Amino acid sequence: MSKIDPARIWSLNHRLLMSVIASVASDITALGLETKELFVLSEVDDHPYPAELAASLCIPKPSVTLYVKRLEAAGFLRREIDTADLRRHRLHLTSAGRKVMQQGNALLSEAFALKLGRLSAAQQAELRALLEKMS
User: How many alpha carbons fall within 13 Å on the CB side of residue 23?
Assistant: First the structure.
């Protein structure tokens, strides 16, 4: 039995994810978003503060600030002063932002489903179980 190479597994996983993202990048752009902006929108409900978003997405804080400003200008996000801490801004998805996020996530899901379709139902279930175990 050959030795498992974690770096190779990492590389294959990264290549898979990047191919899915690349396959829908133009469709996401047609929604008025950059791909990373879609990821920002997708995390706002769980991480409503810019610093939390940066940490969650492993994106530098200045980049998150830029994305937030662009998303706010596009009408997808709203920033409000946090009443519990007046030094912080809390982010909220607008209805337009939620709609475009759902459309973008559907594009990613459909593209990933095509890749998953190469696996049997049992293999898909096993993959899910393994990923959940690793998460």
Answer: 16
Q: Could you tell me the two tokens for 125? A: 């279930």
Distance (Å, rounded) from C-alpha 116 to C-alpha 124?
A: 7
- What per-residue string of b and e applies to 29-55 under the rule 16 or more CB within 10 Å gives b? eebebeebbbbbbbbbeebbbbebbbe
- Please tell me the distance from the alpha carbon of residue 3 to that of residue 6, in angstroms, as a whole number: 9
State residue 87's pLDDT score.
81
Q: How far apart are CA 110 and CA 108, in angstroms?
A: 6
Over the stretch 60-106, which tens digit does the pLDDT of each residue have? 999 999 999 999 999 999 999 988 877 889 999 999 999 999 999 99
Which tokens in the block code for residue 129? 């179980």
Q: Which residues contact 111 (CB under 8 A, 6 or more apart)?
A: 20, 23, 24
Torsion angle of the four alpha carbons 122, 123, 126, 132, in this order, in degrees rounded to the nearest 10: -120
How many angstroms separate the CA atoms of 65 and 86, rounded? 18
8-17 residue pLDDT tens: 999 999 999 9
